[in-house]
Amino acid sequence: MFNHPTGYGLDFEGEIPALAQLFADQLTCHNNDVTLARHHQGLRALWAAASPESRRQLLLFVSWGARESTASDTDYLSTADQCARAFAHYASSWAEQHPEGDVEAFRAEQHSARLAASSLAFDRDELNASLEMVLLLVSRSAQPEAQ
Q1: 39, 127 in Cβ contact below 8 A?
Q2: Which of these, 143, 136, 146, 145, lies nearest to 32 by C-alpha position?
Q3: How many Cα atoms within 13 Å fall on the side-chain side of residue 82?
Q4: 41: helix, coil or strand?
């Protein structure tokens, strides 16, 4: 699941956007309650089964989506929240420095957020924290307008 035959969990066939949408749907099913969604067994199993590369790419993807969020200081006070804010802030700063850049460039370029995302994605002991981060970032991502 979410592993490319080469062993690189890259974004083939829109895997990362689809995974982000699945997380957003699960968050909606849990009334946008990150704590409830984080404890959903299917979501936890999916996060654990995803390749580390896919987890890294999803962290970066949802960071990009949350780059314009303005989370208040009273939303969450967990370590995962502090990290999620840092990822969103880094994506925002990167976007300002690279006005022609897009999410694909942000995910591909070597920078501090990518290194941090790699560290989290490959750390199996921190799966719960990284899952919480993804859900927080998804909850702060700009939602596409209804058509």
Answers
A1: no
A2: 136
A3: 3
A4: helix
